[in-house]
Fold this protein.
Amino acid sequence: MIRDLLRPGILLRLVVFAALVAFLAAPDRFAGLLAPLTSNGAPSIYTQSSLIDLTLAHLFTVALSTFAAAVLAVGLAIFVTRPAGVEFLALSRAIVNIGQTFPPVAVLALSVPAMGFGEAPTRMALFLYGLLPIFENTLVGLSTLPPAVVETASAMGMTGRQRLLKVELPLAMPLIIEGIRLSAVIGLATATIGSTVAAKGLGEVIVAGLLSNNLAFIVQGGVITGILAVLISDIFTAVARRATKRRGAPSAAARTEPDGRQTSGA
Amino acid sequence: MIELSHLTKVYGDVAVVHDVNMHVEAGTITVIVGTSGSGKSTLLRMVNRLVEPTKGRVLVEGRDVLKMPAHELRRSIGYAIQSHGLFPHWTVARNIATVPMLLGWDRKKVAARVEELMELFQLDHVQFADRYPHELSGGQQQRVGVARAMAAKPTLLLMDEPFGALDPIIRGKAQADLKAIQRRTGTTILLVTHDMDEAIHLGDRIAVMNGGDLKQYAPAADILARPADAFVDDLIGPADRPFHYLTLGTVRTAVEPGEADGAPLAADTSLYEGLGALLWSGRRTAPVVDASGAALGRVSLGGIADKAARPR
Ligand SMILES: Nc1ncnc2c1ncn2[C@@H]1O[C@H](COP(=O)(O)OP(=O)(O)OP(=O)(O)O)[C@@H](O)[C@H]1O
Ligand SMILES: [Mg+2]
């Protein structure tokens, strides 16, 4: 049943993705569509830089900073859940929280003098901003595992390292992926402000629209960013769901097998 | 096999296990009974060092467990618990293969062992090998848990209320299966339960714990006949005592010469079951036959009743 419900959803996403690719490949063909949003014969398609280059640069910046945030946040969460690291739990929480509460705009403003204009300050801001969701989710994932399972892993003779790699991380994976998803989606939206310090990205289109009072620019920059966020979020959700299914968590356990046999988590 | 000396575990300022001395023979089943919180699990878990003793010593096959790396020690000792602790993200086959894989057995040998164990525990390989734990019933999960504990052929198996979550019928069957498998493999088993019936049914020897102290450690018959103190007496339940006693002997021990009518009893039937059969069929006597069907004589209600009397 769930499978059937998903099918139209997947179809819709494929259509949206195809439309996005078509637009990025040849934006001019859509000029007429956006023309009503402009006035005084202003161009309706941003041509200062190629939209596809901006999109790829945008994605690259988000991917890089989310990846770096994931490595540090997961590593830190692992460390503070080991016996040797528990003392650092409160401290790590505090540091990661500062990363989240410090406004990205302020990070940009503060890091430009040190790092100069361009991508680096944006990546820095996104990286700091992305730490918290991944850290918190990994922490929850690792500290709420069924005690009987973790203990049996030791009782079977796994070393601490084997227990982490074979049991704890795989079981916490759905939550870790969820944390990375949050960071990536937040990062996609936040990265647009990077254009204020001359980072290449879709923010450039939006800022140009704001400066020249061109609604068509604002809409195309915003919609591309939004579609990317939705599609990427969906991919992460699908991956997390697969991981949950394999883990046999009670919430996801009751399901119908392909051959129609009912199984339950009880 | 296991030698516990002056074994003590202190949490805060409470000794939850206090100065326990115990010797467990190889190839036997020893059952630890006691009320909740009496320190049974703590005692058991000090054997494979899931709990580090505060004081005292544990020798397993002559080796001091505190002087071995914990993970190596644990790979050589089977461990099964009530909530089975199966790894939810691994299939049944992979779960059973846990310890052999940690020990680096080659794949063929692991696969053969998994198949052998699944057969031993009556889990159809084709049907169950690739299932995940949440796709099994509680009884099946429990059998997988015990199979996993025995996978690397440990000579010692620790079990903490392994049948606690099973319904009475499955539980009785699981107990009988465990006993049969133990007799076949000669594994030494140390098992914790709070069920006196289970203890008497399974235990070659029974250790009674109360408030962290080992109150009595003796064969089941001795515990029943000569409880060390009021606590042990209470745990047995005075009304049940003669019936417990009857579960320990077979009708062979009560055979008397003579003949009787009706369906014969097998000589290896327990006295308890023999008594039940006589009462239910309304007979005072029944013929007894051996495994080949040859007549051995008969048993009578009076003969069985004599066996239920307190030994002097
Ligand atoms: N890690 C711990 N820290 C503090 N106290 C503990 C710890 N583990 C066990 N205890 C205490 O030690 C006592 C004995 O616990 P144990 O688990 O050995 O009891 P048990 O006989 O197995 O009981 P049950 O039949 O309920 O399983 C209990 O009072 C328990 O609260
Ligand atoms: Mg216990």
In short: Chain B touches chain A at residues 48, 50, 70-76, 79, 81, 83-89, 98-99, 102, 132-135, 148 (CB under 8 Å). Chain B has two domains: 2-238, 244-308. The pocket of magnesium ion (ligand 2) is lined by residues B 40-41, 160 (CB under 6 Å). The first helix of chain B runs from residue 40 to 47.
